[in-house]
Amino acid sequence: MRCWVTHINVRRFWLIASCIWTVIIVLLMRLPIAQIPMAALLQHRFADEIVHGVLFTVLSGLWLTALGRNLRMAMVVLILGCLLGFLTEVVQMFVISRTSSFYDFIANCLGVILGIVLALLYEGTKP
User: Fold this and answer.
1) What radius of gyration, in Å, describes the C-alpha atoms of the chain?
2) Which of 13, 26, 101, 115 falls 20 to 30 Å from 93 in CA-CA distance?
3) Into how many domains does the chain fold?
4) Are 50 and 107 in contact (CB under 8 A)?
5) What residues make up the domain containing 67?
6) Per-residue pLDDT for the chain (127 aa), expressed as one digit of tens each?
7) Smallest Cα–Cα separation from 51: which of 95, 110, 92, 2?
8) What is the pTM of this model?
9) How far apart are CA 71 and CA 93, in angstroms?
10) Among the residues of 68-101, which ranges form H helices?
């Protein structure tokens, strides 16, 4: 009985962490650039795309861990992660001082793919 309860608590933890990270991404993508902490660092070439990639790598890794690391869930996370990446870029078209970028969308999708690969590789290394 104790093992089952622990498994439920671990899954709940990853699910809550995934939801919180998703909310953080949505909020960050809606903020005007001047309100984002350390926004000056984003002035370097490709820094914005790197940040997008990292955010979405963590996002997809968290969600795949929460839902179960298998190929079926990986496809769900891939589709929904890229959809979220697309929608955040659409929303940015309507935010003052933010611009929508095709390269940001590509970085979002590459981040989703990287997060899935890392999560699946991690699952393969478990004893």
Assistant:
1) 16
2) 115
3) 1
4) yes
5) 2-125
6) 455 546 567 888 999 999 999 999 998 887 766 555 555 555 667 777 888 999 999 999 999 999 988 999 999 999 999 999 999 999 888 877 778 889 999 999 999 999 999 999 987 665 4
7) 110
8) 0.82
9) 33
10) 71-92
Return the number of other C-beta atoms located less than 10 Å from residue 108's C-beta. 29
Two structure tokens written together for 27: 């909020």
CB neighbour class for 2 (10 Å; exposed up to 12, middle 13-18, buried from 19)? exposed
Q: How deeply is 3 buried, as exposed, middle or buried, from its count of CB atoms within 10 A (0-12, 13-18, 19+)? A: exposed
CA–CA separation, 59 and 30 (whole Å): 17
The label of the residue with tokens 């393969």 reads 124
